[in-house]
């Protein structure tokens, strides 16, 4: 029972990160029906920039409190990721509006490769040790434990999602985004600058991705130029699980996927008589994806069945 | 009279010249170094793979991002049945079709649930499938050792017909036929067969159905085409070609490990198809040859160039190769979306529309 609770806690932490990344996928998909393959790479860039800034601040011996240093790292990562996402939208996706669906999907793959290679050239080919400077106090819940880092991740994730929901429903930009996702032509006729709204969507998604990158870095204590691709894929699975294009769906999907992965990795050995071990953890996300596509292609909270071609 | 005859014969003269050049090529390359024969062999193998993927992406318009998984399945089927791993040494003419069949079954299993949905789901599911296959290959060494994990399988048999062993050098007609040269001719033969199959397919009832689906799936269904079945057929065929190529790879290299079947390889094959021209057989072959040879040439020029300019190597050739792939994918889609040698239909289809969504 203790391991069960522990795996759920770990899963929810992982799930919060997936949810943050999944929001980026689902917002872009909701508005222009594009799977932004390079979104995972934005997460990587975020983690890397934060890594450099935190390292530099530690090197300065500034005596700043650790929490502030991590915040400054995130504060530096967010604008960089926003700029990367804007450039990517501008160069690789905007010229292809109205082209067949395959075209932007292929440029997205190209952008993702380029970002990965740039990440490797700028930072390192080897995994980097992300400075774990936050005080990591551990609380006991029965036999399970929760760390302050986990609590911080939950807190940040929940407040970010809350802010995003408010923004989508209360601000002019949010209304414009919803209008554009329903019908770009009509939204354009209503005086909405559709291209700006789409760029804004990419930028907001990138900010969330940057924060997710810092979260992954501080949680696992590691950053690597390939860290974005698998994370991005799983986050996309989470977005599909929740119903792609649906914001609460992405949050729910992320949390569920995180828990499924953690429980799966924790119990697969027991259930299969140790035939399979926790090294199969990465398989669960894809199994979930395939099951969702077979039984409920619209996802948990999505209304529309995705069969428009 | 004479003139007319000559022009009618001209294509045949061209074909004969090309055939001669192709026949002499490996010996010329062997003069520079056997490495270049091996590089050429890999290029031909990638042309095979690209033609297989072209059926899926080019003909039927389904984006498959895990194509290398079928190649891996074919390679491992061959390796397991013709190596000391299980002590089995079955003949290649029995295993290669089996590998194609197993890859085909995987293709159907994967395609059946996803092909009913829109195309980009397929892209993600195939990507995930590629990863799953790699994870299994890496981990199926315990508790029962099947794939030997990350160490891979070595000492795989080469193709053998009676006493004729593709792995060994021998003197024939006064020429030294080394292992790679034998494989060169074999690959050329297989490539020609696959080209012919592809050309026949493209203009068959099935090929036209694929084209119709690619252009407009709803309209195709209205015309009475069983779209799901046709898409599944394309997927299964592409998969079995991948399986065949995998089997040849396995025997040619004598060693395989999960390292050879990573996502980047899938994307490389896709880049070949896109660069050359989706749906055009010759374009795809051109793409495969370009993306196989150019990086090798770069490897031999970029290092020395950087050393003479900066005194040390700043950017590794491997990085340059990957950056070129990425750039090629983006720039091709932006400026020449139909590829270097576009197929007629693709050119029409991918012509920029002026209407905003």
Greatest contact pair?
A-B, 56 and 55 residues
Distance between the termini of chain B: 58 Å
Q: SSE order of chain B, as H and E?
A: HHHEEHHEEEEHHHHHHHH
Based on secondary structure, the structural category of chain A is: mainly alpha
Overall pLDDT of chain B: 81
Instruction: Tell me the β content of chain B.
Output: under 5%
Overall number of structural domains of chain A: 1
The CATH top-level class label of chain A: Mainly Alpha
Nearest-angstrom radius of gyration of chain A?
A: 19 Å
**How many angstroms does the end-to-end distance of chain A come to?**
47 Å
Globally, the shape of chain A reads globular
Coarse morphology of chain B: globular
Rg of chain B (CA only): 22 Å
Largest sheet of chain B: 2 strands, antiparallel
What does this structure look like?
The complex is a heterodimer of chains A (309) and B (357). Chain A has helices at residues 2-32, 39-60, 66-93, 102-122, 148-170, 172-182, 184-189, 194-220, 227-242, 247-271, 281-295, and strands at 128-129, 138-141, 144-147, 222-223. Chain A has 309 residues and is mainly α. In chain A, the strands form two sheets. In chain A, strands 1-4 form a two-stranded antiparallel ribbon. In chain A, strand 2 (138-141) and strand 3 form a beta hairpin. The N and C termini of chain A lie far apart (47 Å). Chain B is mostly helical and 357 residues long. Chain B has a domain at 34-261. Helices cover 71% and strands 4% of the residues of chain B. Chain B has 13 helices and six strands. Chain B starts with a helix and ends in a 7-residue tail after the last helix. Residues 352-357 of chain B have low confidence and may be disordered. Chains A and B meet through helix 4, helix 7, helix 9 and helix 11 of A and helix 5, helix 10 and helix 12 of B.
